[in-house]
Every structure is written in C-alpha cells, then in structure tokens.
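Retro notes - structure team

What went well: the batch runner handled both jobs without manual restarts.
What didn't: labels got mixed up in the shared folder, which is why I'm recording both outputs here explicitly, each with its sequence directly above its tokens.

Job 1
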Amino acid sequence: MKVLVVGSGGREHALVWKIAQSPSVKKLYCAPGNPGMASLATLVPIPVDNIEGLLQFAESEAIDLTVVGPEIPLSMGIVDRFEEKGLRIFGPSKSASQIESSKIFSKRLMLKYGVPTASAEVVTRGEAYRRIRSMDYPVVLKVDGLAAGKGVVIARDEQEAAAGLNLIKEMGDASSDIIIEQFLEGVEASFFVVTDGVHAVPMGTAQDHKAVNNGNTGPNTGGMGVVSPSPQMTPALEAEIMSKVIEPTLRGMAKDGMPYKGVLYAGLILSDQGMSVLEFNARWGDPEVQALLPRLKTDWVDVMLASIEGRLNQVSIDWAGGSSVCVVLASGGYPGAYQKGEKISGLDGDFGDTLVFHAGTAQQGAEYLTQGGRVLGITAVGETVSLSRQQAYSAVKKISFPGMHYRSDIGAES
C-alpha cells in the first residue's frame, strides 16, 4: 500500500511514525513534511493548501490512502476533491469540517442538538469593542475562523478584553465575527474519537497545556505540552462524554446532511457543575497526538480504512498501559513574533525510548534549524506520569537552541 500524509508539523511526524509501523504500508510519502521524518517517508514539496497539486501527485503515484493532518486543507475541501476522483482519503468533508473552521457553526450545532456548552452570543468585532465596557467578567472571546489555536482570549477585566481584541484584530478575516462566551472554571481535557459517520470509537484522552508559561499563565498557544491519558478521565466520565457529546453531535451532523468521518476532537472543561464542550476540532490535536499515538497498539492504518469503509463497529482498539508526557520546545517570542534559523544542538544524542517529534524545523547540510514557533515535541511513555515526566525532561536537557523556552510543569499536577 502507498500512503500519503498531508502536513508538516509535529502531528504529521507522529502520524508518519505510527503509519510506518503498519505491515501493509510499502511506500510512505509526506507533503510537504519536515526533516525529522525524512528517514521514514519520502518528502514531497507540495504545500498543504495546494489541493490540485496534491491530487495530481496522488493520481500519478497511484496513492492508495491519503491521510490529512492539518485543518486548512480539510476546510478547503480536500476530502471532497479526492473522493470525486475515486481516491481513498481519511478525514471529514468540507461541510463537516465546519465544526472546526467556524466556531459560530459549532456553537449553533451544539445548542441545536443539546450538547452541553457555555452560553454565548455572536457579535461583530466592532460591536465587541463597545460591549466590553459593560460585560460581567471574566469572559471568553473567540474568533469565528481558523486561528492556529490562538483565537481564544480569556479576559478578566475590560483592559484584558481590549488587549485581546487588539490581538484578535491582527488575525484578519478570521476575526470579523466574535463569540463572547461565558467563562467556565475547571480543568480542560481533550477527548478523541474516530468515526465512520455512524459508529464512533474512543481514541484516547489527554490534558493539553495551552498557556505559554508555567502555572497556566500568559497568552494561549497551539499547545505547550500534554499528559495522556487525562488525569481526570474515568470510565463513567468517558461514557457520559460519548452519550452527551459525541453521539448527539454525530447524529445531528448526519441529520443536517453532513455526516462526519475521521477523527473528531472534543475540547472539554470539567468543573463542579459538570462537563461542557469548549470547542471541536476536525482532526487530531497537536501536540496531543504526539502523546496518544505512542500508546496505541492497534495498527492505525487498519482503523482509518475501517472508518472510510463504514465498518468501525468491527474494530477494537488496544492501548498500552501507563502514561505519556509530551513537552514542547518553542522558539523565543512564541506565540508572538519569533526568530527562525537558529541552530538546534543535541539532536544527535542518545534519547533511548524517548521520541523526538519535529514540529517546526529546517535542515541545512547536517544541521537542524528552527523554522516554526513550536520546534520539537519530546514524548516519553512510562508506567506512571511521574516516570514519563522524568524521562521527557531528561531528554529536554540534552537539546538547546537560542531563545528556546518550554514549560517545566507539564504533568507536575498529575
């Protein structure tokens, strides 16, 4: 089988790493990929938003399965285009991926089908500036469109709200409409399922750390680290999430003529008042997937094919025991402006069983350079969170580049 993975970040490196383990895969490509995965896949220099270029490559190379990592090509309709040509591709359609590409669509869907979520209203950006003078704080401000995980601002007073709106304004068209949402206090959890549009199978949980600094302080990022499984998850809570969140969401989307296939991510807040959905993503979370896939024992290719073919009810998922911890190493200045091209030292060291996933790197000769805001994801799997955490941070200390920063408290509260 020939497989093409679309994307270039840490999520795609983790997917390539897992897919390469499947005995059914004889040739593996990644477009455009990154230097860290070059030993596992042939890198193809086609950008993720060049849908026709990706389609032409898939046809010319007789690709048997295309796996879409990031949200942008999904929102552009890559799945619809490939299916029009009779090609197998894993991911939701353009209409179904609105569950991520439009937070307004997602909020209205949840309210329509009784999925627990915070109360909210939709206003224009200009109206939001006027509204912040008279709101009861704290509140949450969200942009409607895609914002690479940085389109959410928690404002505790008018000054923070104004600063947040100024930051949101820089996101352009994605922020023309704003959701003003009730702030919910609690612990966040990431919940994943794979679905064929009718059946849904849980695919693990994680606790992401969005804030850039220790103690969950500072601006939100795309994610600075992960613990998996989520320390708060129990069998009873998982069953509640499936019955109150996943099942009504999938039934509702099917009823509305946009059946959802692929990986569905539910970002949850767990509080004394119960469980609520903060957001949905139409794909694996990053860095969550970097912590989840190393614990997955089942052949991921088999699961994806079962999703595409509508037979997920015949599949069982097997997980390794223990816990995993992923620590993100970021460029100086991230999540704001950051410097590229810094030399990364230490990647030629011995990391044992610890995995080093490349998220934003480039290669110049034999040297690796920083290329993105999130540069590397260091993942360790152990019997306990404490052991995994110790192993991950031991590996972190072997790596350095100018401006490198990371959170030192990933998993510390577990």
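Job 2
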Amino acid sequence: MNIKTIKKFDKGNVLKTYQNMNKQFEQIFQEFKLVKLPANFKNINKILVCGMGGSALGPDLVRSVFKNNLVLPLIIVNDYKLPKWVDDQTLVVISSFSGNTEEIISCYQKAQRKNLKIFIIAGGGKLSKLGVLKFIYEPKYNYAQSPRFAVGYSIAIFIALFKKLGLLNFSSQKIKLGINFFSKTKKEAEKISLKMKDKIPVLIASEHLVANVHIWQNQINETGKNFATYFSIPEICHHQFEGLSSPKSLNKNIIYVLINSELYHPRNQKRYQIMEKILLKKKINFIDLKTKGNNVWDQSIYILGLSSYAAFYLAYYNQIDPQPNPWVDYLKQEMKK
C-alpha cells in the first residue's frame, strides 16, 4: 500500500491517530493519578455508564474483557433515560467525548434530580463546565478528532477509574504491556480488508472478545463506509444457521470473520469448528482469525488494533476519506431543527 496515496485520501489524520494509540493510554494513566474521588464512591454496589456511539465503546470493552475481574456489575445505557432501579448505591458515569451529546445530557439531568453519585468524563463541551465531579481531558493524540478514534482514551479512563475505586483486579503491568499489541496488526489487517472489499462482513466472537466485534462493526460502518454486523457464539448457534438458506444470493454478498481464541470455553471452541463446516457446506466465504496474546487483555487489544487498521484500509479500497461522517452529521443537523 502506497504511503503517499494514503496521505492523499486520509485528510483527517486517521492513520496518524492509530500510530499514536499507545500515547492515548499513557496520557490518561498519567493524568488520572491526580484525580481524587470522594469516600462515598466506595459505597456503591453497581455502576451505570451513560454513553452514545464512540463514547460507549471504552466501557463496553472493559466490561467484556474484565467480566471475571470486575467486582461489581457494569451496565451501559445508550438512551435518554435512566433505568428505574438506579439508587443511592449506583455510581452514574456520564461519558461524552464532545460533552454535548443530547441523550447523555438528559441522563445527567435525571441523575442530578435524583441526587445520585455522578462522575463526568468528557473531552470538553457543556458537560465540562458543570460544577460536578469530573475528569476532563484534552484528546491531543486523537488527530482525527472523532469519538471513535478516541477509543484508547475511553478504555484507559474506565480502567483507571475502576482501579482507583478498587473494583478491577487485574495487573497494571499486564495492562501497560498489552497496549503494545495494538501496533502488531497492520499486515494482517491489510489482508483482511482486501477480503472484505465488496462484501458485508459478519463478525463473530465470544466471551472476552464480544465487545471487540461491536467496536469493529462501528469502525467498518463509520470509518470503512461499509455495512457490517456482528454476533456472538454460543448465542448465534441457537438460531442463525437456519437463516443461511435465503436469499439465494446471500453467499455472494457476505463474508464471515470468525475470531477464535484458545482462552474460550472448550465447548465454544468446538462450535467454531462446526460453524466452519456449515459455512463450507453453504459455500459462504469466511476468515478464520486467531487472536494473539497470553491473556484476555492482550487478545482484546490485538483485535482492537487489527479492526482499527482493517476498517481504515477498507476505506482506502472503497476510495473514500475515512474520517468524515456526513450522514451522521446530517442526522444531527436535522435533529436541531
């Protein structure tokens, strides 16, 4: 892939952002050391995160990867309202990269009226100006400037927050070392993006990597300007195979990406083997993708790097600038009327 050609079409500095992803993590881990949390934040039994789009990807990945290491339930809301069950033992985290997301501001207002424990995370905007406990950061290594390219910031903030609250039991050293897996994926990502070209990717993962395929779907949609969807094993095994019969043109239009891991439950690993047999019988193309790393965090960051670069290269092959989101922006402008 010609680097000069990439620079011509990548006007929004997406590649530069990915090349500096480790710095997003490093910045947050350093800055969050100065954050002081009130004593009553320890008196909680659940965490509710309110976030939309890219601002919800970080907590989703942390929840998925560290589900066996988090000592309290983590629930994510992508809407205007809080669940009825929120109470004084709920920590409500308001997450908005822009600080102006209307759904999340609505959640904040409802949490404030109920006098709940609130912690704001934002990169600026209206939320940054509120007199509430908050962590406001300058996303100086997000050269592409959109929320989805601040995923390193979002992941790091939630890790740092939960670590400071004593809710995440996972080695800080392993977390820092695992970040290096992001940059080890470029060559494989380029090969995968070529196979995805002119296809609808169907992304499949399990257990600690389910949030990764959620993120990858968003990246393909927004960055690659290409339709994609995702599912998880074992759930998919209880319904989807019967849907592979129609329409008759299905096998020409889709490609499965099966993300396997030796850390999955043995029964789930067997399901991947059987699914490959079914796809072969149905003459549906698939990519057998084995993740790298010795623990759940390494593997998740490896897939995050691979998905980021693959979506970027897909935009290149689709001959479109990966940074702008004209249709998302159009919807937002229409909502203001």
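One thing worth noting from job 2: Residues 9 and 128 are 33 Å apart (CA to CA).
We'll revisit the folder naming next retro.
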